Amino acid sequence: MTMQAMIDEWYPVGLFSQLDSDGRTTALMGEPIEVARDADGNAKVTGGDGRVLPVRVRYGHVWSSLGEPKKELFPIPEADQPGRRFVDVGVVRVRCSPLRAVENFLDIAHFPFVHTDILGAEPHTEVQNYKVEIREEEDEVWATQVKFYQPQAAKSASGGITTEYMYRVPAPTCSVLYKTCPPRPSEWDVITLFVQPLAEDLCDVWPWMALFDDETAMTDLIHFQQTIFLQDRSILENQIPRLLPLDPGMEIPTRADLTSIAYRRWLKRHNYTYGAQLVAQ
Q1: Counting beta carbons within 10 angstroms of the beta carbon of residue 154, is it exposed (0 to 12), middle (13 to 18) or buried (19 or more)?
Q2: Is residue 280 in some structural domain?
Q3: Half-sphere CA count of 42, side-chain side, radius 13 A
Q4: For residue range 86-123, what is the model confidence (pLDDT) as tens digits?
Q5: What is the DSSP string of 134-169?
Q6: Residues 45 and 108 in one domain
Q7: Is 50 left (phi over 0), alpha (psi -120 to 50) or beta?
Q8: 241: cis peptide before it, omega within 30°?
Q9: Strands 55-58 and 131-135: what pairing?
């Protein structure tokens, strides 16, 4: 499978706070890499052939690339907003395509069935109309005006509310979710999914959050988000085919899948095909 278009993108390869001089061995798109701190305490990423790879440290994570990124890592302005709590959720390994992991994150129709009594509940299963666009200037997929009833929208929520969402895909294996912030209705909570493609059918998922929540213990915030994602993992690991089909005729979408359709179209446009299935088999 060609992967040239995705070689030059940035990918998360570890939590900066957990790095030491011994480093950790991991992989990026099939190539073994070493992530460590150098003598000055800076992050350093080395490829399997010993070459030093490009590095950025942002949003609590170390980012790297096997190629030469043509642009800087995408901005999340809320990451610089005073008063927010930044939550390094950790990592969950999932035996699925990295593109499948992102697409699942964009899907709201599964909330009542997979995240029952947390992010959704029957009989509140209908996905209301929402807006999806590929924003040409930023070259990102956006879904806005997404509303869903949730029994427990966040760890800080005290009861069921209709939550508003915005979804953003700024990179092929990353998504940023903005959702109603119960303690501060004028602001958005930010929940991200940073996906490290280990192979075409295996990935490490690094969720990260920037929240206005001064009450909840950090361990509870981490546990809440890990609970949600572990519920997703069982679904992701049983999806067939394992790779994400990009041919529109291979899986039948519903009206609720507008974001997924736009994401697949955007991937195809850029030839982001590492982890994708291009033709029916």
Answers
A1: buried
A2: no
A3: 7
A4: 999 889 899 999 999 998 888 765 444 343 444 444 55
A5: EETTTTEEEEEEEEEEETTSSTT--S-EEEEEEEEE
A6: no
A7: left
A8: yes
A9: unpaired
Beta-carbon contacts of 139 under 8 Å, excluding residues fewer than 6 positions away, are none
SS3 188: strand
Residue 69 lies inside a defined structural domain of this protein: no
- Rounded Cα distance, 99 and 46, in Å: 25
Instruction: Kindly tell me the sign of the dihedral angle through the C-alpha atoms of 219, 224, 225, 227.
Output: positive
What the block records as the tokens of 193 is 């999914």
Task: Report the amino acid identity of residue 8.
Answer: D
pLDDT tens digits, residue range 133-151?
Answer: 999 999 999 999 888 776 6
Q: Are 87 and 222 within 8 A, CB to CB? A: yes
For residue 38, the domain's CATH number is 2.20.25.680
**Amino acid type, 115:** H
